[in-house]
Amino acid sequence: MKEQPIIEIKNLHKAFGKNKVLKGISLRVNKGEDLVILGRSGSGKSVAIKCLVGLLEADRGKLEIFGTDITKLNYEGLNKIRLKIGFMFQNGALYDSMSVRENLTFTLKHHTRHLTEENIEQQILEALESVGLQDAIDKMPSELSGGMIKRISLARTIIIKPEIIFYDEPTAGLDTITAQEISELILSVQKKYKTSSIIITHDMICAKMTGNRIIIIKEGLVHAEGTYEELENSTDPWVKSFFFATNQYAMGPGPTV
Ligand SMILES: Nc1ncnc2c1ncn2[C@@H]1O[C@H](COP(=O)(O)OP(=O)(O)OP(=O)(O)O)[C@@H](O)[C@H]1O
After folding, report:
1. What average pLDDT is seen over the chain?
2. Ranges for the ABC transporter domain (predicted)?
3. 137 or 173: whose pLDDT is higher?
4. Residue 19 Cα: closest atom of ligand 1
5. Residue among 40, 45, 215 whose CB has most ligand 1 atoms within 8 A, to mutate
6. Which of 238, 243, 251, 222 is nearest to 27 (CA)?
7. In the chain, where are the structural domains located?
């Protein structure tokens, strides 16, 4: 029997006025799968994810999460679904006036009712341990480096034990070595918690490390799909130049893609 996907998008269209951003995107994520989405800035990666979780209204297309058609859900129904999803967006978005403990407690209480104080403390410590930052529990966000903020954001994402995690540029703004450490951490979290994930990134090291399947979006459509190695060795001229340019950007301008 064919496995029921956790996420299924079919023929998704979305335009803002005359700007046709998505022109028929289709993708699926099965249980335990980690899908990376690549594509140039403005290609519609974030818009696709926002439509999927109901933060933007799609013009047309099938949008299913856990077998539920999200286009038919009301506000409460959407919120119920979102509680099963972890979000790690690029800005981290921790509350600056709250300590790490308070930030994590706030998230946990929002997602899970009837927790004892002891339960909360235990889950916070476990999540912080998973990201190697147990000692930061009483720190304020202003005392943390960019890399530490990413780790705390990841702890805050996994503390709710999501079935799937959406990462939007999880290594953005980090130096190459820290970006690699965060990618390793994402990989260890995927293994430990057995979550599925969708990872939007421009970081090819992150893509290679964290995704078991990759799609590349070009001009509102899925242009190519495969493993990192398959796409790296693709004979499609556009995919070749996309990989070349994305891998070489630090060394100077590559060919136009
Ligand atoms: N709420 C909105 N209203 C109008 N246009 C929007 C809105 N959100 C996104 N867009 C437009 O949709 C297009 C795709 O944006 P999107 O954020 O999905 O790009 P992206 O591929 O995620 O880019 P990046 O890699 O830079 O984050 C852009 O042209 C953007 O200006």
Report:
1. 89
2. 7-244
3. 137
4. 29
5. 45
6. 222
7. 1-28+59-67
Residue 45 CA to ligand 1 centre (angstroms)? 8
Strand ordering across the sheet containing 213-218: 85-88, 164-168, 196-200, 34-39, 213-218, 221-226
The ligand 1 site (C-beta within 6 Å) comprises 16, 19, 21, 39, 41-47
Confidence of residue 87 (pLDDT cuts 50, 70, 90): confident
Residue 213 has which token pair? 């399947």
Q: How far apart are CA 198 and CA 216, in angstroms?
A: 13
CB atoms < 10 A from the CB of 69, how many? 11
Q: Which residues of 127-151 are buried (b: 16+ CB within 10 A; e: fewer)?
A: bbebbebeebbeebbeebeebbbbb
Query: Could you give the C-alpha distances from 209 to 32, 39, 155, 228, in angstroms and in order?
Result: 15, 17, 19, 9
> Which of 187, 136, 131 has the alpha carbon at shortest distance from 159?
131
Task: Report residue 12 as tokens.
Answer: 């998704």
Report residue 251's pLDDT band, with 50, 70 and 90 as the boundaries: very low
The fraction of the chain above a pLDDT of 90, given in percent, is 64
Give per-residue pLDDT as tens, 144-174.
Answer: 988 899 999 999 999 988 999 999 999 988 8
Sign of the CA dihedral running 219, 200, 48, 213: positive
